[in-house]
Amino acid sequence: MSESVIDQVAVEFRDVMARVCTPVAVITAFDDERPHGTTVSAFTSLSMGPPMILVSLDRGSDLLSIIRRTGRFGVNVLAHDQADVALRFARKGADKFDGIAWSGSSALPRLDGASGWLACTTESLVDGGDHVVALGNIVETGLTPAAPLTYHDRVFGTHSAFEVAR
Ligand SMILES: Cc1cc2nc3c(=O)[nH]c(=O)nc-3n(C[C@H](O)[C@H](O)[C@H](O)COP(=O)(O)O)c2cc1C
């Protein structure tokens, strides 16, 4: 393949993936006593028996370094009114939790107001290009009724059901 074709594939790959409507979650872990978190859209369920999920993290992610050390991570599935939380955790820094309401659960930081909670122990970390896929075993779950936060075409939104014809 020529370089221009490879460039076009890289650009169009991003554009095609932008058309995939995704959920938004903040993955959390403790760096010693300090809570840390990172916004992700690349997470999905993996297995029902045993219950497992996977999360794809950039090799340069500070959260990934913490998970490598601690072997556990939390998944906070964000609610429709948490776009500001998603943006807060999508930047670098040790102060992302400043002013954020949270509590400890299963030795992991759990965000207030998220619609879903999964506490995980790391089953394995699998290299995938410039990302690492973390496979997690679910050890605790939590639910709060709330419409989801979604990400589509680089814009936050929520889900709306089709009207059911009667
Ligand atoms: C909507 C959205 C989705 C994102 N999805 C991912 C993702 O799936 N994986 C990832 O590694 N980074 C993702 N990011 C980028 C990280 O949140 C960002 O690089 C963050 O600064 C990493 O922080 P850390 O180094 O403290 O882990 C996403 C950002 C946004 C705004």
TrEMBL record:
Gene3D superfamilies registered for this protein in UniProt: Electron Transport, Fmn-binding Protein, Chain A
Top-level EC class as recorded in UniProt: oxidoreductase
Keywords attached to this entry: Oxidoreductase
Sample GO molecular function, one term: riboflavin reductase (NADPH) activity
Ranges annotated as spanning the membrane: none
Domain Flavin reductase like: 17-158
Short name of one Pfam family: Flavin_Reduct
UniProt keyword Ligase present: no
Presence of the UniProt keyword Oxidoreductase in the record: yes
EC number: 1.-.-.-
Family to which the UniProt record says this protein belongs: Belongs to the non-flavoprotein flavin reductase family.
PANTHER family: FLAVIN REDUCTASE, FMN REDUCTASE (NADH) RUTF
Protein name: Flavin reductase family protein
The organism of origin for this protein: Gordonia westfalica
Lineage, uppermost ranks: Bacteria, Bacillati, Actinomycetota, Actinomycetes, Mycobacteriales
